[in-house]
Amino acid sequence: MPLLPALAFARQLIEGRLKNGGRALDGTAGNGRDTLFLAQLAGGSGKVWAFDIQAQALSNTAGLLRENGVEERVELIAASHADLADYVREPLDAAMFNFGYLPGGDKTVTTKAGSSVRAMQAAAALLAESGLLTAVVYSGHPAGRAEAAAIEQWAAALPQEQYQVLHYRFTNQRNYPPQLLAIEKRIRKPNR
């Protein structure tokens, strides 16, 4: 099997975790492709929360969900992903972030290091045991470089007793290819 690009690998990892009836988060709704993916995996009894600060992103996502008949499974939230703990209080089986800017939108509106790290902290705290968080990071623009560095630093400092962190990236490609951080919440071992 060939090595997958970062987003395709993130989806493959999530497919192995999110099952029918599961709970998931899309921290960066964008054009709705990840939200749709999560909603289809979560099934009719599942739930997905999707965040974006841009009205256009939420409109695009709502349209895609309607076209695919899964809109009832998703709660679209017009707020920063940094505030997700104000809206989501259930354990998450999966969380996805696809940082950067809205494809086809205003490239001056980007995710930022501070709010992105806060969002990932909140999502990691909400993960159920064996839950998985994926973050695709783009460092091809100045805000993206700062964001990637902050996210990598935060993830590297997570306690290994609670989380496993995978950093997946291609080191010989030009033009700053996207990279993936995958964070798994470990299963607690019972005290003996």
Helix-strand pattern, N to C?
HEHEHEEHEHEE
Shape: globular
Main sheet makeup: 7 strands, mixed
Strand content range: 15-25%
Low-confidence stretches: none
Structural class: alpha/beta
The residue fraction in helices comes out at 25-40%
Give the integer mean of the pLDDT values.
94
- Number of β-strand runs: 7
Helix run count = 5
Q: Strand order, biggest sheet?
A: 3-2-1-4-5-7-6
Distance between the termini: 42 Å
Instruction: Round the Cα radius of gyration to an integer and report it.
Output: 16 Å
Question: What would your notes on this structure say?
Answer:
With 192 residues, the chain is α/β, with parallel strands linked by helices. Helices cover 32% and strands 24% of the residues. Strands 3-2-1-4-5-7-6 form a 7-stranded mixed β-sheet, sandwiched between helices. The radius of gyration is 16 Å and the shape is globular. The mean pLDDT is 94.
Show the helix and strand layout:
Elements: H1 6-15, E1 23-26, H2 33-42, E2 47-52, H3 55-67, E3 74-78, E4 92-98, H4 113-126, E5 127-137, H5 142-156, E6 163-168, E7 179-185
Parallel strand pairs: 1-2, 1-4, 2-3, 4-5
Antiparallel strand pairs: 5-7, 6-7
Helix pairs in contact: 4-5
